[in-house]
What does this fold into?
Amino acid sequence: MSSSQEKFNAFIREKGLRLTSQRTVIARLALNRETHFTADDLLAWSREKDKGISRATVYRTLSLLTDLGLLESLDFGDGRLCYEPAEGRNHHDHIVCLHCGSITEFHCNEIEELQCDVADRLGFRVDHHSLRIYGTCKDCSERTECNEQR
Amino acid sequence: MSSSQEKFNAFIREKGLRLTSQRTVIARLALNRETHFTADDLLAWSREKDKGISRATVYRTLSLLTDLGLLESLDFGDGRLCYEPAEGRNHHDHIVCLHCGSITEFHCNEIEELQCDVADRLGFRVDHHSLRIYGTCKDCSERTECNEQR
DNA sequence: ATCTAATTGAGACTAAATCTCAATTACGCC
DNA sequence: GGCGTAATTGAGATTTAGTCTCAATTAGAT
Ligand SMILES: [Mn+2]
Ligand SMILES: [Mn+2]
Ligand SMILES: [Zn+2]
Ligand SMILES: [Zn+2]
It folds into this structure.
């Protein structure tokens, strides 16, 4: 069992909540993902393990996990949230290809620092931030160039 | 009439579209705003001028205006889009107070350049980006401190 | 004034997410 | 191992921003 699953279980116990089979299945699947996923993805995977799991329970467990900081929710502007494991991973931002939808992660310390500077200057205390760059990935650029050369 | 309204009218003519009274009302109200607004705000203002204006027409005109680049749409993650006039304004990003909801605009050239650097390094061509900082504004910080001192 | 294609308004529809509530279940206690 | 009870669940209703449909209206060319 991964350390984030153990944190989840400990949290459940601490708060006097109950460790149900549904929560166990859903949390395990969510916390061990490598890539971004949607609530609907998670519902489908969960139902492979237990047909009866409801959409509501998936959303309720996603809330628990994000409140706990074990998952992070991401809004890429396509009308639904994505999620990714947050535990033990470093903060990063995202660059999204408008053609193929691929999402690449990056981290830039200078940008992070400059954000703090800006916030300081404006008298804000920073809680978190969201930075997305939208554009065309290498593969899609090359594909487009080829088409243009026809 | 503002220059962005004239651009809108010219565009309508060019494309063989029709300059209806509804489009005129909605575009004037949208393009002369100083602050961020929602589709629903715009519907309410439009109906003050012409009771019959429909939700659908407001959304349709918002699409025209954003496609034209006269408006920009902004997603602050609260489940609906905001809009702001884009014509003749410089690009800027936003810092949002999680307590009072106030939105402050800022611009940081170094951040903009670093974003390009990052994209270059990853082989992306940049189309646009979205940077939001979320935190606590000066006023809300001071209010909280006072409460704590009680 | 006439014609016709673009536009409109009303309301149906969509889809993600939340809510409701009766039925089920985890778990502390014996 | 059973009991009691409060937390949890599933089914499906609801919400809400936004889109779609289509018959009726209208802008603008002739
Ligand atoms: Mn990520
Ligand atoms: Mn702005
Ligand atoms: Zn791509
Ligand atoms: Zn504030």
DSSP finds six helices and six strands in chain A.
